[in-house]
Amino acid sequence: MARIPLLQMTDISLTFGGDPIFSDLDLVVQPGDRVALVGRNGSGKSTLMKVMAGLVEADTGSLVVASGRSVGYMEQDPQMSGFATLGDFAASELEPGELYKVERAGEGLKFDPDRPVATASGGERRRAALAKLMAEAPDLMLLDEPTNHLDIEAITWLEAELKSTRAAFVLISHDRAFLRALTRATLWVDRGQVRRQEKGFEDFEAWRDKIWEEEDQQRHKLNRLIKSESRWAVEGISARRKRNMGRVRALHELKDQRASQIKRQGAAELALDAGPKSGRKVIEAEGLSKHFGDKQIVSDFSLKVQRSDRVAFVGPNGAGKTTLLKLLLGLEEPDAGSVKLGTNLELALFDQTRDQLDPNASLWENLTSDPLLGISGKADQVMVRGNPKHVVGYLKEFLFDEAQARAPVRSLSGGEKARLLLARLMARQSNLLVLDEPTNDLDVETLDLLQELLDSYDGTVLLVSHDRDFLDRVATTTIAMEGGGKVTAYAGGWSDYISQRGGLPGPEKTEKGEKTKSQKVKVKQVAAPGDQLSFKEKHRLEALPAEMERLEQEIAKLQQLMADPALFTREPVKFKKATEALVERQEKLAAAEEEWLELEERAGG
After folding, report:
1. How are beta strands 168-172 and 34-38 bridged, if at all?
2. pLDDT in tens, 143-156
3. Which of 129, 293, 352, 521 could form a Cys-Cys staple with 489, CB 3.0–4.6 A?
4. What burial letters (b/e) apply to 224-235, b meaning 16+ CB within 10 Å?
């Protein structure tokens, strides 16, 4: 007996007055479905989810929800007017005997039901909206980026809840680990089409790449056919005009077919310039302590950060990760201890609050203005790592079109704001990059590019993130903030941290007034000779020989070029650049050899 779908969409079309967002869309969600809804930022994922929730009405087509079934949607920006507290909002659709469900969700998601709506942050409001949905337990849950503003403990709680639920759900998320753990089918929104595969997110990228490869092959065959037919038309059409007008019409139809193909959106052209090298020692912190009132943030914490380190900071929301970053950067004074910053540092900061963006100013003005330097946003060009670029051209590199350049920032989606902030960040040279929650709202393709960029970045990275997959792929050291001032350093990323710790941390219970044992941590202690290499370090050890060989080849070519005694007088600029390049590569080779020796020694015990 066939199952009755929970939700069925038929011949859905939606334009918003411009090009179609969806056209002739058919979609079915069955009972028990666990679906990843994926696609590039701006592809229409959130819009499709709002159509499914009945919040956006399609231009044509029908939406049918099975009789007696309920659909719930987690709002990104929930409207709470008329509610005194977050708990009042979360419990608004529940019977009096079901209020415990909100309290339970509140504990798991770490929001205070008694918090007044008027003083609640955007993150607290979103957690309340998620708690409301989880407490109501509809037959179909529509979850749009539910892990944003959640720490890893809350994400783990939500993951367990969704694994055990009998309800169906459709899930938008940038968190690969979350999607892999939960989904069994994938909906892919791409250029107005929605494709479905009966496999979870784990298989999405291979499926996507196969479809794109098939498209490229078809496009190549079509181009070859048009080229062949065009040659025939030029060479023989006059002699056979009457007999072959049908073939000419067919050629025009082939060209129309090619013109009608929707071009894939390219990847954002992300680039980072590490600029001048910093000193070998970037940060040296000794005996740091900091508290606010009765809350101890850090207690007797020491850390050394060397050039090219990738240091991640993890811990529950409110543990003090951002405060610790400010202490290490010298932006906030500790209660005790000292911080020494290295020489020649050039800092670039990605701020999770997006405070660096003026919501009422345009994208153009946000790129070309700097209030601290007294620079207005009227210029046509923006300086990108020392070189002038036209504002619109630079915005196009980050997938913004010309019409958006003069639009206010407040009109952008969360993912678009993150891309704009990356555009500002990457316009300047830096050798110390601080990324506070950079992964929120970015699509998986942009996250891939960002990760690759950080791998090749020749500076130092300090990173705060709750994205476990991203941490695994980027971090070489993880600083865990575990509450009560306890801070511990671990070699590697998130999985390495959990392995070394023996599992996820739990809340530590102490008697009232009991002092947490002081921690004095140095990264070198964690990465001592004889320790087992982390996954990322093993990968690095395998990659270093090829990197050293490449550098040796480049050095040999430069030395051969500079062996010409007339080069200096004939082309002094070229000689100067070759000299600088030779010194740079020799330094990189020496650093790579030193790194290889250290890793090889530790790998051998």
Report:
1. parallel
2. 999 998 888 999 99
3. 521
4. eeeeebeeeeee
CA atoms within 13 A on the CB side of 80: 28
Mean pLDDT of the region 486-510: 77
Q: Domains (ranges, CATH) in the chain?
A: 281-526 (3.40.50.300), 535-603 (1.10.287)
486 Cβ contact list (under 8 Å, min separation 6): 299, 508, 516, 517, 519
Structure tokens, 577? 């650049």
CB 37 within 8 A of CB 171: yes
Identity (one letter) of the amino acid at 454? L
Q: How far is CA 135 from CA 65, 98, 104, 131, in A?
A: 21, 8, 8, 6
Locate the DSSP E strands across 207-264: none
- Give me the long-range contacts of 381-387 (CB less than 8 A, separation at least 24): 382/427, 383/427, 383/428, 384/426, 384/427, 385/271, 385/273, 385/275, 385/426, 385/427, 385/428, 385/429, 386/273, 386/429
Q: Which long-range contacts (CB under 8 A, 24 or more apart) does 289-296 make?
A: 289/334, 289/335, 289/336, 289/337, 289/485, 290/320, 290/323, 290/324, 290/327, 290/332, 290/334, 290/335, 291/335, 291/485, 296/484, 296/485, 296/516
**Cα radius of gyration rounded to whole Å, the chain:** 28
Whether the Cβ atoms of residue 335 and residue 291 lie closer than 8 Å to each other: yes
Cβ–Cβ < 8 Å for 276, 344? yes
Instruction: Give phi and psi for 464, each to the nearest 5.
Output: -115, 125
Return the closest-CA partner of residue 477 out of 329, 303, 250.
Answer: 303
d(CA 131, CA 457): 40
Strand-strand pairing, 310-314 and 381-384: unpaired
- The residue ranges of DSSP E strands in 273-431, in sequence order, are 281-292, 295-306, 310-314, 336-341, 347-350, 381-384, 387-390
Per-residue confidence at 228, pLDDT binned at 50, 70, 90? low
Q: Which two tokens stand for residue 465?
A: 């993130």
Which of these, 170, 215, 217, lies nearest to 193 by C-alpha position? 215
Q: 582: how many CB neighbours lie within 10 A of its CB?
A: 17
Which runs of consecutive H residues, i.e. helices, occur in 110-186? 122-136, 152-164, 176-182
Q: What is the pTM of this model?
A: 0.69
Only one residue has tokens 């709750």, namely 466
Report the distance separating Cα 349 and Cα 399, nearest Å.
Answer: 21
76, 145 contact by CB (below 8 A): yes
Q: To the nearest whole number, what is the mean pLDDT of the chain? A: 81
Positive or negative: CA dihedral 150, 153, 159, 163: negative
